[in-house]
Write a structure and sequence with these properties.
The complex is a heterodimer. By secondary structure, chain A is α+β, with helices and mostly antiparallel strands. Chain A is 39% helix and 12% strand. Chain A has 13 helices and 7 strands. In chain A, strand 6 and strand 7 form a beta hairpin. The mean pLDDT of chain A is 95. Chain B is of the alpha/beta class. In chain B, 50% of the residues lie in helices and 9% in strands. Chain B is built from 15 helices and 8 strands. Chain B has helices spanning 16-29, 47-50, 52-69, 78-93, 95-106, 121-129, 131-137, 153-156, 159-165, 177-184, 208-224, 235-243, 245-252, 263-270, 289-297; strands at 2-6, 32-35, 73-75, 118-120, 146-149, 188-189, 229-232, 260-262. In chain B, helix 1 links the parallel strand 1 (2-6) and strand 2 (32-35). In chain B, helix 1 packs across helix 14 (263-270), helix 3 (52-69) crosses helix 4 (78-93) and helix 11 packs across helix 13. Chain B starts with a strand and ends with a helix. Classes of the chains: A alpha+beta, B alpha/beta. The interface between A and B is large, with 68 and 65 residues.
Chain lengths: 325, 298
């Protein structure tokens, strides 16, 4: 591809709101000619410099390091300084809506109150906890393989893109959110960290912890630094079992229940899984289960299928199982 | 066209209508499906939380059976598709991991080679059969209906992986496959913000409130878009939207309920299959297509 600069017309609908003056937010239209060299931050600058000096947004490094300028374009969280206009037009067409990361947390235009993000971040103890002697005789050596384990998670710049893209954060104020979990993993995976079990224990609290992740992959999709938070959440789940921190609750039994079911039948026994996960609390599912039964949606125990060559599956479980509960 | 069919677990238990409608549509389109009766559960992303290596081995075993047939594996569940495609991706990218998995598979006389592709039935019929051909075969266009597409997370995210597994390039913020399929069936596609959002299925047991709110928001979004029904390629989304409407209504403080069709059922209706063949009688929220049809013709 030759490196010629192209231009095109784009209609921007930009979220405007001043918490001190406005009762409701509104959207301002800006028609602009944009070049293929520009990023979203250039557009924000031009709105401020050429159209309305009161337009407010956060920016600092301009190099994808400080994490200050994250906004949403057509619903997709992104770093304004990193997102090329051509790519966006290719993805969404010539009508682009620019909004803050969270409309409900807007203070002024693109600027949000990110307090909840920092509270969650703080709550997972985002630092190395290690009892280091004042005058150590040796350095604490970390092998390249051990460093590799946390490298990806260490790239997080706390921009909040994943946090405000997470549907659980949206509906549950207590949920730690993907960024905090990825940061927790960064220290959990650090061989020098000594808070290992204590931090893990904090992470799987009911209603705010790891098990409330809905596995939607929104966080992986938006992360501008490829931290892949959901993968880190999965690794933390595995750590809970590996370190023996996992206690028996509906979530841990739900994960382990799959193993029992596969061991027995190859395929999942849906009713059996719910019973194993819920225990006596299964009674709350009876009304829906009854309706499902009437519609032929519940297989009787004798009608639940079994995989062919089940012995292979059972043999593989015996030889390949790496986790215990 | 011939595929190895990985039915997944729900198609034979809580969503029998999904398997019925898949077979009925495949029959109409002349697609041959060889069922992988040896396949185990994919782990549904929950076994993965407990034992990553074991879930890789089990999924690689499923793929190995598709490879034995020399066929592309077709799935009918978004979550099956993601877990299987992720396994394939990780093994194909990492020879050491592939060797470790194959060491285990060798114990039962199997080998994962990486020769079979994996695709969801939705993309199989769009990529390989073609929307134009489906359109030509429509005998009962769904022109009376506003249909809200509900994509389901595990078919559109992570897009980097998804767009490697099928030819249709999907923008996870503005996907088109299901919308295009609705249009091909003669229906009117409803645009609404929640069509790419999560239904909450995977935390239904451990975080029921979160799950119910997400379900409620999804149905409410479709209703506000004036939808007569929703349609989804994922049986797990289907279960959540169809069977949990009561809890969803309680959670969001608004009565929400819509018939939710599997994409196969929608295509089947347009191709002239009977509601019984498509298992519409198995839904909790009634879908009486014939009756709806009558009303709208008056």
């Amino acid at each position: 591809m030759s490196h010629t600069i192209t231009t095109q017309n784009v209609n921007f609908k930009v979220f405007r709101f001043n918490a001190d003056e406005d009762y409701l937010p509104y959207y301002e239209d800006y028609d602009m000619e944009v070049t293929s060299e520009e990023v979203v931050l250039d557009i924000l600058d031009r709105i401020k410099w050429d159209h309305d000096g009161s337009f407010s947004y956060r920016r600092s490094c301009r190099h994808g390091i400080c994490g200050a300028c994250a906004v949403k374009v057509n619903g997709r969280s992104t770093l304004a300084c990193k997102e090329n206009m051509n790519d966006l037009v290719e993805l969404f067409g010539n009508e682009l809506t620019i909004e803050p990361l969270s409309n409900k947390r807007a203070v002024k235009d693109m600027i949000i109150d990110k307090g909840d993000f920092w509270e969650k971040h703080e709550a997972i103890h985002p630092y190395l906890i290690s009892d280091v002697e004042e005058h150590p005789e040796n350095e604490h050596l970390v092998t390249p393989e051990e460093a590799e384990e946390l490298n990806e998670a260490d790239l997080c710049i706390q921009c909040g893109a994943c946090h405000y893209a997470c549907p659980v954060v949206e509906v549950n104020d207590e949920f730690f959110g993907p960024a905090a979990f990825a940061k927790a993993y960064r220290f959990e995976a650090d061989v020098r960290d000594e808070a290992h079990v204590a931090r893990l224990d904090e992470l799987h609290k009911e209603n705010q912890g790891l098990w409330d992740c809905v596995k939607c992959y929104e966080c992986q999709e938006v992360c501008p630094k490829d931290v892949n938070p959901i993968e880190k959440i999965t690794k933390l789940h595995q750590m809970l079992f590996k370190e023996g921190v996992a206690t028996s609750n509906v979530a841990t039994r739900h994960a382990v229940g799959f193993l029992h079911s596969i061991e027995k039948r190859g395929v999942l026994d849906e009713g059996g899984l719910v019973l194993y996960s819920e225990g006596p609390a299964i009674v709350k599912h009876i009304p829906v289960a009854f309706k499902m039964f009437k519609k032929g949606k519940i297989a009787m125990p004798w009608a639940i299928p079994t995989s062919d060559n089940l012995d292979e599956i059972q043999k593989l479980i015996k030889s390949s199982q790496t986790a215990k509960f | 066209m011939k595929y190895a069919l990985f039915t997944g677990c729900t198609a034979k238990q809580s969503t029998p209508e999904q398997l019925m409608s898949t077979m009925a549509v495949a029959d109409k389109l002349g697609i041959e499906l060889v069922e992988l009766t040896e396949a185990s559960c994919c782990g549904a992303s929950h076994l993965q939380d407990f034992d990553d290596f074991l879930s890789l081995v089990l999924n690689a075993r499923n793929i190995a059976y598709a490879e034995k047939h020399g066929l592309t594996m077709v799935t009918i569940c978004n979550t099956c598709n993601l877990n299987t495609a992720m396994t394939k991706h990780r093994l194909d990218e990492n020879p050491d991991l592939k060797a470790k998995v194959n060491e285990k598979l060798a114990e039962v006389g199997l080998e994962y080679k990486g020769t079979s592709e994996i695709t969801h039935f939705l993309y199989a019929i769009i990529d390989d059969f073609g929307l134009d051909k489906i359109k030509e075969m429509v005998v009962k266009p769904l022109s009376e209906f506003n249909i809200a597409p509900y994509y389901g997370c595990h078919n559109i995210r992570p897009s980097e992986l998804q767009n490697k597994t099928h030819k249709t390039k999907e923008n996870p913020y503005k996907p088109t496959s299901l919308d295009d399929l609705i249009i091909a069936c003669g229906g009117h596609n409803v645009d609404y913000a929640e069509k790419t959002k999560c239904c909450g299925f995977h935390v239904e047991l451990q975080a029921p409130k979160t799950a119910s709110i997400l379900t409620g928001k999804a149905i409410a979004g479709a209703m506000d878009g004036n939808a007569d029904m929703m349609v989804t390629p994922c049986p797990l989304c289907h279960l959540k939207l169809d069977t949990q409407a009561n809890h969803a209504s309680e959670a969001i403080g608004r009565e929400v309920e819509l018939p939710v069709l599997h994409m196969q059922q929608m295509v089947g209706l347009a191709l002239g299959c009977t509601p019984e063949e498509l298992g519409l009688q198995h839904h909790l929220v009634d879908v009486n297509f014939v009756e709806i049809n009558k009303e709208s013709n008056e």
